[in-house]
Design a protein that fits this description.
elongated, 4-stranded antiparallel sheet, 10 strands, 425 residues, alpha/beta, Beta Polymerase, domain 2, single chain, Rossmann fold
Length: 425
């Protein structure tokens, strides 16, 4: 769908507007990444822009907005305004899905079919957290609540009944394998983990099994850093200490929610000087990036981002691709069912409008009948007048439309009326 196309339907539609690893580089993705600490405020702000329901999913590989709105342009304009960027910066990288396509996309994302690592399970947890945030914020309505309940059910079925998650290698595991390809045995290496979130915990579990010389967790909250350090039998420090301690480490893995780089060029240059140019291996798993891109230009630094890891996560892909075909068939079946439910929801305003129209006739004629009764007219005569007036009003607009219609329009209207009313030929 072209971004500049405007939807003529005045009713609210379901849209997904997003950017992911297949449409944009990390340099673009980090421009529209959402700070998890301010996600509720972002949702509340979006809801003031003619959006009736909304949820935001923001990970290292994607930023997506699921919303019920009249026009996707409302969502796109808000996205640019919120992040302070011009549309031309991201327009060619955006995708917009409407109604059935949006439903299918949600099912595919939760099932791991749209991930950089085909079948990876982490995205489902991230999606559940995003929906929990939206629910707590109050931005979930009937449509999105129903959509994501179904989404999680479909994802569970896909992961239970197919081998989509078999033989997959996570980004955390890929990071460790890459470190081994450079250093070989990691037993002599000192490891620094920046952050204490889910991704860093996964990295910690993988690298702990390699028995490195030491493991240190650097975090803004020392208590949370110490909690993770205790699990991996390492130690902890504050991120603010890194300027003086970075030179101690051979391997650096970073994944935080910081909106600004934590490790800068000057900090790394200082560390290399102290290390007498002994190399440092660094993996930045964050979006926005934790490590300034310029660091990668230093001759004694091996710096990798999530995009650089893509070639390492293809192991076992053949088996998972076969499972993905099977999973897609399941998804298609559920998309069809949910789309049917969604269509019934879209006609509710029309049915309500029809009932309100009929109710206005009833009230008008009832008031007239009550006046006639007060004037002394016999009840049976009032009932006759009332029933005739209602009958005339109910058939007036259909009759007028039929009389004015010509050609194919007349034929179509005739068939429609015969379908609505049990009319005899």
């Amino acid at each position: 769908m072209k971004l500049k196309r405007r939807i003529k339907n005045i009713h609210m539609q379901l849209y997904t507007v997003g950017i992911n690893h297949t449409t944009a580089s990390i340099a673009i993705r980090e421009k529209v990444a959402f700070d998890p600490d301010h996600l509720s405020q972002a949702l509340l702000d979006l809801m003031t822009h003619k959006v009736s329901e909304a949820a935001i999913l923001s990970t290292c590989n994607r930023s997506e907005i699921y919303a019920k709105a009249r026009d996707p342009k409302i969502i796109i304009d808000w996205l640019c305004k919120y992040h302070g960027i011009k549309l031309k910066t991201i327009e060619s990288h955006l995708y917009v899905y409407e109604n059935q396509e949006a439903i299918q996309h949600a099912f595919r994302v939760a099932s791991g079919l749209d991930s950089m690592v085909l079948g990876e399970p982490q995205i489902l947890g991230q999606m559940k957290q995003a929906i929990k945030t939206a629910e707590n914020t109050g931005s979930l309505g009937v449509l999105l609540n129903k959509l994501f309940q179904k989404t999680f059910s479909v994802a569970k079925e896909v992961r239970t009944k197919t081998d989509i998650g078999m033989s997959s290698i996570s980004m955390a595991a890929a990071s460790i394998k890459l470190a081994e390809s450079i250093f070989g045995d990691l037993k002599a290496s000192k490891v620094l983990l920046i952050g204490a979130g889910e991704m860093i915990e996964l990295c910690a579990e993988h690298i702990k099994n390699r028995r490195p010389k030491s493991m240190t967790v650097a975090n803004r909250s020392l208590d949370r850093g110490l909690a993770l350090a205790k699990k991996i039998k390492g130690d902890a420090c504050l991120i603010s200490e890194l300027y003086d301690r970075l030179h101690e480490f051979d391997i650096v893995l970073s994944s935080t929610a910081s909106q600004l780089p934590i490790v800068g060029l000057g900090m790394v240059e200082r560390a290399l000087k102290t290390r007498r140019n002994r190399p440092i291996f660094m993996v930045d798993l964050a979006v926005p990036r934790d490590i300034e891109p310029e660091v990668g230009k230093l001759s004694d630094v091996y710096l990798y981002t999530v995009d650089d890891l893509s070639h390492l996560i293809e192991e076992g892909l053949t088996n998972r691709q076969s499972a993905a075909i099977e999973a897609q068939k399941m998804i298609d079946h559920h998309v069809k069912d949910f789309t049917q439910w969604f269509k019934t929801r879209t006609i509710v305003p029309t049915i309500k409008a029809l009932r309100d129209h009929a109710e206005s006739y009833r009230i008008t004629e009832l008031k007239k009948a009550q006046k006639l009764l007060k004037q002394g007219m016999k009840p049976e005569e009032v009932l006759d007048v009332l029933s005739k007036a209602l009958a005339n009003k109910f058939v007036h607009h259909p009759s007028q439309a039929l009389n004015q219609a010509k050609g194919e329009e007349h034929e179509l209207l005739t068939k429609t009326l015969k379908k609505i009313y049990p009319l005899k030929d």
